[in-house]
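Human:
If only I could read backbone structure tokens as easily as an amino acid sequence. I am handing you a single protein, as its sequence and its fold in token form. I hope you can help me see how the letters and the tokens relate. Thank you; the sequence and its tokens follow:
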Amino acid sequence: MRVVKAMSQTILLLALIIAPCLAIAAEPTFKEGSFATSDGVKMHYLEAGSGNPLVMIPGWSQSAMEFKYQLSGLSSKYHVYALDMRGHGESAKPNHGYRIQRLSADVHEFLVANNLSGVTLAGHSMGCSVIWGYWEQYGSDRLSKLILIDQMPMITSNPAWSPQELENAGSIFDPKSLYDNVNVLAGPDGVKTTEGFVRGMFTKQYPMDAVNWVIQENLKFPREYAARLLFDHATNDWRDVIPMINIPTLVVGGKASLVPWKSQVWIGKQIRGCEDRNLRGDRGWRALHILGEPRQVQPAGERVQRLTGFGRDCVAFPLSVAGFDRDGAEKSKQLFVKVS
């Protein structure tokens, strides 16, 4: 089942973040839609533009609306979709299904419901894990390219690992800290914990109103369910799945990100033909948050929103996305952004 309606959005946040010397873009217009999953959950999504399909999957506890700059900036070249995963954003909030494999099934059902094929599937943070779960279940069905943004292969470490295994996995939890974080998130201090987590993704340079908006988007996902999903997310080890990827893939990582950057190098090495791209960005975000900093550039006469530091001839996510052949070759690439 698919329901679509036009939704005109006035994005006041845009005016707060764009530098005064830059012209402000026209108000973006999105379409808002929904579909029902096989287990009866109403899922919400945003879409804009026309052309080859680009489907964007947000990170843990984040919403489709946090892709608003990409939706508006890329709609002149692509048919862009951003999903609210179950429980997140404006999607229904059932008391079941908060596992990566179920979220991956939701994505596949979305592609089927909208009759999409040749899709560029882009995941930010946990969205990468959803993609890896999709690949494990469905392979390249309906897909043409992948974009993996800032997610380690395994969040929770094994005490028996060697230092090299730990570096490759990029783990930031051990078993105790995982349970500690999940329990506090599900408890009475869950909101306060979320606020601290989100603020840690940004430096003091980033406007406080924008950070507060991100926090409110995160809190649309009930904390009890968020804790449940975090536990599942943090205990999935994707190191055996990633080497199976055999379609063009862009790997995006940051050398000062909260996600250990060497784990992103490891991911790139597992995907045949992956190249390195090293770029800089220092505009107020520690993690590679999908909001980044909106800025208007005009590569080849087109106006798009981009993350600071993604140059015009790079194949970076917000700028060219599906055009991995921008420099004449269709192959996997790896991009690193140094955030200082």
